[in-house]
Design a protein that fits this description.
With 308 residues, the protein is an all-alpha fold. It has helices spanning 2-32, 38-57, 62-87, 91-112, 122-127, 147-150, 156-173, 175-183, 185-190, 195-217, 219-234, 240-268, 277-295. The chain is built from 13 helices and no strands. The chain crosses the membrane at residues 6-25, 37-56, 160-178, 190-214, 220-237, 244-262, 274-295.
């Protein structure tokens, strides 16, 4: 039993946890800044990045696709900030204009460049296939100390681990700046803080986390984790530090609980097949948010900002 878990379930579960935490951390600040839909915007701009990467390299490989998607995501957040500031319109409107335009451009480029007949892995980038990320060289728990076995770990695991670690470090290093600029932008400007650069850095960090997660878990989990764990955590406490901790806990519970329910839930109900792990993880995060809305101690203060 232990060998089967290590081979088939350990790495997908770890990847789901790391991806969820990497998205939930910046999601806390995006929600407080009313930019929670940035994850949805990024999911739309992945397509043109993937197409451009294929046209430049001529191959369908993970690294070029990831770099292309990341470049498109960074371009999107720059355009969103530029439209918002130069046009003086609401962030939601700026995001809507940007991601629909880039998505339409990606579809047009796909058709006009005659790459529609080539299998560009768009479905994998947007939907993910968490169940396939198994560790075939693992035999049991001792494989965690075996260099030969560790060399066969799915490449998505170290990639998302590095991104998650970077997000945690950036959050800790710029914690004070993020907190001040999020709750009182005028005060942050008076202190001489680069408010514009802080906001840009936050959305770029979120974009990098989202794109890194796309390759492993797909946009379903990404969009859900940007919103559901932070929003549920907001209903549990009125302090920012505790909110972040709650969001990490909810992200981990969603990843583990969703993966287990996806594999064993249908069997418990008498069905023969499993369901999508990504979809079930997103569903569990939504259930947690619904429970927080019903029973959270701060559910009557939805829309109010957390205390600094």
């Amino acid at each position: 039993m232990g060998s089967e878990f290590v081979m088939f379930s350990l790495t997908p579960m770890l990847i789901g946890i790391l991806a969820s935490v990497a998205c939930a951390l910046p999601g806390n600040f995006l929600i407080l800044r009313r930019q929670a839909l940035i994850g949805d915007a990024i999911s739309h701009v992945v397509l043109p990045g993937i197409v451009v990467a294929f046209l430049l390299t001529g191959v369908v490989a993970a690294l070029p696709m990831l770099l292309g998607a990341a470049g498109a995501a960074v371009l999107a957040v720059i355009l969103i900030e530029a439209i918002k500031r130069l046009g003086r319109i609401e962030p939601g409107a700026a995001m809507g204009v940007t991601f629909t335009t880039l998505f339409a451009g990606g579809v047009l480029l796909l058709e006009q460049s005659d790459t529609s007949s080539v299998h560009l892995d768009v479905e994998h980038a947007l939907m993910g296939n968490l169940e396939s990320l198994v560790w075939l060289r693992a035999t049991d728990w001792s494989s965690l100390m075996d260099p030969w076995a560790l060399a066969g770990v799915p490449e998505e695991l170290p990639r998302i681990a590095v991104v998650c670690f970077a997000v945690i470090v950036l959050t800790l290093v710029f914690w004070r700046w993020l907190k001040i600029s999020t709750f009182d932008e005028g005060f942050a400007q008076a202190l001489g803080l680069p408010v514009g650069m802080i906001g840009m850095g936050l959305v770029i960090t979120a974009a990098i986390a989202a794109v890194a997660a796309f390759d492993a878990v797909g946009s379903i989990i990404v969009i859900a984790m940007f919103i559901c764990p932070p929003a549920a955590a907001r209903l549990m406490t009125n302090g920012l530090e505790r909110q972040v901790l709650w969001s990490v806990l909810f992200a981990v519970v969603s990843a583990v609980g969703g993966y287990v329910l996806a594999g064993y839930g249908p069997l418990w109900l008498g069905a023969d097949d499993a369901v999508s792990a990504a979809g079930m993880i997103a569903t569990v995060s939504g259930v947690i948010l619904a429970l927080a809305c019903l029973f959270g101690p701060h559910r009557s203060r939805v829309g109010a900002r957390a205390e600094t």
